């Protein structure tokens, strides 16, 4: 892994010159429009970066975007990677390690998720303050490289408390409905059954999705403060469960995206 990381970072630095990003951003399903707010001097396709996994989803662009957002130098993943695409957890989180080695000091993550909490409705936002990991493998499984992080990283506060409170404050000021809740990570790509939705709610979940947690684990392993936010694109309420398509999820995410973009932009500008 260390050699692969070194090769990727060397290639990217050759492309971006003396640009050093301060903030890393991961844009989830249907949530790529934040790049329109970035003044972009450099853009690199995943497929051209040595050892970099390639997003296999038709609605994910697969680009690393380098630029300035509200005065901060950022690198944004326009198109994230998922375990259900067939990649290992180490491959999914490889870009997080690359961004850290490029110089980022904070990580911001977005995703589209299904609501499990009847008080959290479709089209609203949820800032993640904790998670439950039901995915079958940890990205830290295997040989630990101590120069990347400790063998047993603490996960008692995986999401930065100050950023959470600031994000909630920004939402209130802008009259945006934004909750704070627990995200449950599952493998996917299938959506959940009625019994599974009920189970996920019983164990403490407020929203469910197929991403984010591997990246959060690796960010904590490398000492990166994290902020994560979900756009709630569907509702997993067993008593009134309706079929949902990926197209509907993307459409709902796109409608709610400006609210998420506002919160992320203001948070990043205030760092």
UniProtKB/TrEMBL annotation:
Entry annotated with the keyword Transferase: yes
Pathway: Purine metabolism; purine nucleoside salvage
Keywords: Glycosyltransferase, Transferase
Record-listed E.C. numbers: 2.4.2.1
InterPro entries (alphabetical): Nucleoside_phosphorylase_d (IPR000845), Nucleoside_phosphorylase_sf (IPR035994), Pur_Nuc_Pase_Ino/Guo-sp (IPR011270), Purine_phosphorylase (IPR011268), Purine_phosphorylase-2_CS (IPR018099)
GO molecular function terms attached to this record: purine-nucleoside phosphorylase activity
SUPFAM superfamilies recorded: Purine and uridine phosphorylases
Class in the EC hierarchy, top level: transferase
Domain Nucleoside phosphorylase: 23-268
Family, as annotated: Belongs to the PNP/MTAP phosphorylase family.
Subunit structure, interactors included: Homotrimer.
Function as written in the Swiss-Prot or TrEMBL entry: The purine nucleoside phosphorylases catalyze the phosphorolytic breakdown of the N-glycosidic bond in the beta-(deoxy)ribonucleoside molecules, with the formation of the corresponding free purine bases and pentose-1-phosphate.
Name of protein: Purine nucleoside phosphorylase
Taxonomic lineage: Bacteria, Pseudomonadati, Bacteroidota, Sphingobacteriia, Sphingobacteriales
């Amino acid at each position: 892994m260390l050699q692969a990381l070194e090769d990727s970072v060397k290639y990217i630095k050759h492309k971006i010159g003396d640009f050093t990003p301060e903030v890393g951003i991961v844009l989830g399903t249907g949530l790529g429009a934040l790049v329109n707010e970035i003044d972009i001097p450099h853009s690199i396709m995943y497929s051209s970066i040595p050892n970099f996994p390639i997003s296999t989803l038709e609605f994910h662009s697969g680009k690393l975007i380098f630029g300035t957002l509200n005065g901060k130098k950022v690198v944004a993943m326009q198109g994230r990677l998922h375990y259900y695409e067939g990649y290992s957890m180490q491959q999914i989180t490889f870009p997080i390690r690359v961004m850290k080695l490029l110089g980022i000091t904070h990580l911001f993550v977005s995703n589209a998720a299904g609501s499990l909490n009847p008080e959290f409705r479709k089209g609203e936002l949820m800032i993640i303050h904790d998670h439950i990991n039901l995915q079958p493998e940890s990205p830290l499984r295997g040989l630990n490289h101590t120069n990347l992080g400790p063998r047993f990283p603490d996960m008692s506060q995986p999401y930065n408390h100050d950023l959470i409170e600031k994000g909630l404050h920004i939402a209130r000021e802008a009259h945006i409905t934004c909750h704070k809740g627990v995200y449950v990570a599952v493998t996917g790509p299938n959506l959940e059954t009625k019994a599974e939705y009920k189970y996920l709610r019983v164990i403490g979940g407020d929203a469910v999705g197929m991403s984010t947690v591997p990246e959060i684990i690796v960010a904590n392993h490398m000492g990166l403060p994290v902020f994560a936010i979900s756009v709630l694109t569907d509702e997993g309420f067993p008593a009134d469960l309706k079929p949902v398509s990926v197209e509907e999820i993307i459409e709902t995410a796109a409608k709610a995206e400006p609210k998420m973009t506002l919160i992320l932009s203001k948070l990043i500008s205030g760092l």
